[in-house]
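User: Run a structure prediction on this.
Assistant: Running it now.
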Amino acid sequence: MCGLAGIAVRHGAPPPDRGRVAAAIEALHHRGPDGSGAHVTDRIALAHTRLAIIDVDGGAQPLANEDGSVITVYNGEIWNFPELRRELEQHGHRFRTHCDTEALVHGYEEWGDRLPEHLNGMFAFAIWDESAGRLLLARDRMGKKPLYVAETDAGLAFGSDLRSVVLVTGRRPALDRARVAEFLFQRYTNAPRTLVEGIDKLPPGGALSYDGERIRQWAYWTPADDAEPIGPAELRGLLLDAARRRLMSDVPVGVLLSGGIDSAVVAGLLREAGANGLASFTVGYDDPLYDERALARRVAQRHGTEHHELVVGPDDFLRALPRLAWYRDEPIAEPSEVPLFLLAEHAARHVKVVVSGDGGDELFGGYPKYRAERLLGLPTGVPAVACRLGVAALRARPSHRRLGRAAETLRIRDQLLRWASWFRTFDSAELRSLLHPTLAPTAADAALVQPLRAQLAPYAHLDPGRRMLLGDVLTYLPDNMLLRSDKVLMAASLEGRMPLLDHRIVERTVATPAAERSSLRRPKALLRRATSDLVPTEVASAPKRGFTVPVARFLLQTGSRPLQRLVLSDRALDRGLFDPGVLKRLVGGNGGRDEELKVFSLAALELWLRTNVDDVTSHPPQTVEPG
């Protein structure tokens, strides 16, 4: 895992500014503290910071082919590197390192723009073809590694985060006010858009070329709707192979444990794949409603890991927020990101790589909303009962957020709006009231649901269960969960790996009927059948909690209520984003479950503006004054 940045110069524009390139390298240090490098000519700047995982001594970047005509900077891991190397060597290519990066330059020589199709991995890369004067960018299929781009008068800039693109271009960042409603609705923005004007995210499974004049962008991968469904035995085989590949490392590897099924499965697969002396890490709280350390400890005992625990309190939470706001680079989406950040810092003292169970809920139907939606699909007359049953099911999980919104969500008639609304912070009516009148149209129902509608348009022929799950795989998973995992773990210079999201598993699972993946009585039924021997009984039977945080106690009952002061500060109000009266009534509330997340999201937006837009620095702040 690493950081990359650069710019391909537009024809007739000045050469890259070396000082700006150096500033981007400095700001990416946390993504690659083990080394840095740059390749700068009149036409291209390629910058890189390295977190050395494979071929520690020989994998420095930028890396070129034999004659220097093809040069790359790259972030991620290529899991099928051994097979690619053998294939490329058979075609006459000669490798001088043992690093997977070299497969990119030789693969480009062999396959050109079709290179990404040959890769099984998590990656974002830039390849400069010196002979053609052409840049190729690509991002992995699931969106595990971020890649941002911006076209300017100077050329096409790119980077692993928004900040590096801003620093390379030298332009002052500006908030895209039209995207504020989208963020507050769902706590993230959908690719390709970001909250910074003029900077986009390359979508997952996307590639882009630039020749100094024209940009060409295309999707090299989308989930096929006609793949062969997968059964438990075949799934187990693919899971084991994915776990084995994710043990590829020349540095220590650990595993992140919650108290849930997905991380227990991953720990068991890693052990079955041959991991010895595996370290495991979990975070907890002095609140039994949210603390899952006992279940994580049971998983660690079952699979023989060297277990580490971290307890996070209110002061830890608040102290970490300013630093994480800078590292996160986009607004903090979930309160759970803060304890994950602190756990990552703790784990980084022991290992450089951690494996997690990310993606299990979205792929195998773990969230209660999937079962609630299936109830709505029962015969006429049942939906009213479904509303009551769905709310009752959710209330059985007292740590589940937005419980008061469950009944309202089930009553939304527009199917896509209902799907988009399950994890909302504000609904559209609340946003239209809260936002400045000039921004209210951006909170229309049609505008908020448009990204999901566009993603699912090619899959209109699928049944609702598969479409709902696929919608989360295409939007919520890459634009929120995976972006969170990358930014938060890399803030601690820690690489994260997600075997459940191996694209071979994803392709087969999304083609499997929703009812086979998750039943009304048994969420993640397919995954459970494939891995029942890996999950302790106590974990398998425990109610789903998710990675939740006691936000009310941490934020709304702590001293001077700093986040409320931040949201209502003159500096925040002067931005003109909100109706001051509505905002003050909201923030001055009593702090119920809905209000705590609303305040947190508003504070996350303001923290991000102060640490990433108002002032662009190469190092994170230690504190941010609330006023």
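Residues 232-362+478-541 form a domain with the Rossmann fold fold (CATH 3.40.50.620).
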